[in-house]
Amino acid sequence: MRGLRRTWWMPNFTVGIGYDSSKEDDTSTTLPHRHGEYAVKVCLSGRMDFVIGDERQILEAGELIVHNPGQIHQSYYAADHQPCDGIDIHFDAATLAEIFRRISHPFQSRSETPYFLGKARDEKLVALAQEMVEELRRKELGFEALLNSLVVQFLVYLLRQCVEPTLVDPPDIGRQLPVYEMGQAMRYIETRRKCDFQLGELCMMLGTSQSRFETLFRNSTFFSPHQYSDRVLIRKAQELLLQEECSIKQVAYELGFQDCSYFSRVFRQVLGTTPDGYRREERPQLPAQHGTPASCAAAATAGAGIAASKRTLPD
Question: How many CB atoms within 10 Å of residue 260?
């Protein structure tokens, strides 16, 4: 999971900033998802990998890319176990339309949706992103007003000199879970074991009804919350199963499954093979294991990011 996360949202949730800092052992992968807002990803150090649609994009330090509304994307942090820092700047279509109006952009009166294509590199934009990070870190008097101003500057410079948008017909993606709710939901799911995941608790934390959340979450991720949680856990299980000291029984226990049979059933549903079959295929030199070595518990906590069920979500 990601090592450090700081976030800020405007009171009406139309603009938000998220800062991630990952160490070598903080590798994390989000599952494919989409949302109705724009998201500018800026890599400040290291390297960040993304899959947008079917295309893989690698961001080096100083580069940025835009995720457009409705685009299915997936993020990889600390790729190849290299530390990285990055910032996400989220904004909705109304915010972009207001920027178009204020700068008299030619797109201000068009009904189509602007899409930003390709990567870009610009020192001014990176400098503004770094200023945002510093304001997030310090949170001194007036930092929210400064963050709002920095976002406006960032978007104007983005349009002026960096990424030229193209017009497309509005994507028919239905209602999506707002990105600020999606981020909180993902962090909740990533820190819960199977036995600790409570959908009612998550919805209460978000201040929303269970029926609304389930509908919008499925529209955004193509899975129910429980199916998404299973995929997060099985991704962690894949890492643990490649460690020689971890038995299948211990992996199931550390991930919060009631027993090995249940764990194996979910594993097969997600990957189409059993835990033992996966281990033999990926690491044929590993001996068959039936014990529950204590060292695996530490490996699960440190390597796979398993957290206690009542862990406080990062700010």
Answer: 18
Instruction: Look at residues 7, 2, 38, 56 and name the one whose alpha carbon lies nearest to residue 190.
Output: 2
11 closest CA partner among 148, 151, 212, 201: 148
DSSP string, 28-56: EEPPSB--SSEEEEEEEESEEEEEETTEE
Tell me: do 163 and 186 sit in the same domain: no
Residue 306, classed as helix, strand or coil, is: coil
Residues 154, 17 share a domain: yes
Of residues 309 and 251, more confidently modeled: 251
- Token output for 41: 């990803």
State residue 160's pLDDT score: 82
> What CATH number does the domain containing 207 carry?
1.10.10.60
With pLDDT > 90 as the criterion, what percentage of the chain qualifies? 57
The number of beta carbons lying within 10 Å of the beta carbon of residue 19 is 21
Q: Where are the alpha helices (DSSP H) in the chain?
A: 93-102, 123-138, 143-157, 179-190, 199-206, 210-221, 225-241, 248-254, 260-271, 275-282, 295-303
Task: Please name the amino acid found at residue 233.
Answer: L
Q: Could you give the angle at which helices 225-241 and 199-206 cross, rounded to 10 degrees?
A: 110
- 134: which strand partners? none
Which of these three, 149, 168, 187, is where a domain ends?
168
Q: Average pLDDT for residues 16-24, to the nearest whole number? A: 85
Structural domain that includes position 153: 4-168
Q: Is there a single domain that holds both residue 46 and residue 97?
A: yes
